[in-house]
Amino acid sequence: MFISEEVEKLSQDYLENPFGKKKDKRIEGWLEIIKALPQPDNIQVELLSEVSVNFHCNDSRGLEEKLLLLLPWRKGPFKVNEIFIDSEWDSGKKWERFLKLNLDLKGKSILDVGSGNGYYAFRSIGLGAEQILCLEPNLMHVSQFAAINHFVDSKMIRMIPERLENSSLENSDFDLIFSMGLLYHQRNPKQHLYDLRNLLSKKGRVILETIVSPKEYGVALEPKEAKYASMPNVHYLHTDFGCKLLFKELGLRVIAESAPELTSEEEQRKTIWMPFKSFESALNQDNKSLTIEGYPAPARKFYVLEDSGI
Prior knowledge:
Layout: H1 5-11, H2 27-36, E1 44-46, E2 52-54, H3 60-68, E3 78-80, E4 83-85, H4 91-99, E5 109-113, H5 119-126, E6 131-135, H6 139-152, E7 157-160, E8 174-180, H7 189-197, E9 200-211, E10 220-221, E11 237-238, H8 240-249, E12 252-257, E13 261-262, E14 283-284, E15 287-291, E16 299-307
Parallel strand pairs: 2-3, 5-6, 5-8, 6-7, 8-9
Antiparallel strand pairs: 1-2, 3-4, 9-16, 10-11, 12-16, 13-16, 14-15
Helix pairs in contact: 2-6
């Protein structure tokens, strides 16, 4: 059984076809790309220090061309032999900040909400996590996960292409729940946190990573027209005070937190694997302490939360 009877049942439809019954004109092409990937023996897999696979391949250029067809690669990087998938985000930097929280992942069941292409799930397996359910509604990201896991071949990660609120998860408990870069996109952030709390095991923890606004914004900055740093659908950028107020209202206790970290153009940038506008278009070029809209530049922070029982 994978995590719970509920998760086992919900994830079954995506084991043979990662897209299940989803409708998208691009799916047929993605499936053809994944089917055409080489199926080598004796693959060496590394998930602790990076996400990489090594195997004998007769057509490295052809393999790279196939993987490029799955762009834009937002999270990573990944290494497939000598092919370096240089994603928009150097997600290893965020992972290093997470590691400083000193959480033990060994034997844990994990829910990764808005997981992207599964980069953090692979890294979690490297740290000994037992089973991970990824929720990711963006089918492009699902195609990338399917491609990388074609080589990694982890049976400990499953991905469902749904948002949390549409996933039908109700009766499953997770030891750890990741919600990274999601809170500010929620029209109802309180409901999002409530839903996460309800899926925690008795001693479970939520790992929340979000952009925090300077304290002069009181509870939260509310960007005009929900646009911030060239991102659409940014509804609330809570201050540290505002975040902790939300946590208290929901009976969530902060047991660890990081210092805010400014996003840099080294951590998020345009690459050949994501050749469209990136963080360089998000900042005011005359004053990079401000976004293009005139708000404070993004600073991200981790919170580790547990149910206080109140």
